[in-house]
Sequence to fold (119 residues):
Amino acid sequence: MNFRRMAILLLAQMTLGMGLGTAIFAQGPLPPTASEIDQSVTAASRDLYGQNEAARSLGAKAKAVLIFPDIKKAAFIVGAQYGYGALRRGRKTVGYYRTSAASYGFQAGVKKHAMRYFS
Fold:
């Protein structure tokens, strides 16, 4: 394959990847409200602590827990991910956060996951 074909193929893959990311991540005009984030965080915490005794023990000892209940990622050569979460001390929300990242390389797909940070 010559250089020109390789360049065109790479450009097409990058364009498709960015288009896929835009389509997957389009949420509408506004990010979730604080109430919506709190509801998602509460549900994710209930699920985790109900199923995992080690997490429940760690959560009880932690000064605070940063919870991102719904992180979405999409990629096709170029990838992007984002999510919204809350920092909780006990059962009280003390702050709201957004996470995002970009990546590139041999990757393709869409996935959803959650993250928790205990401190």
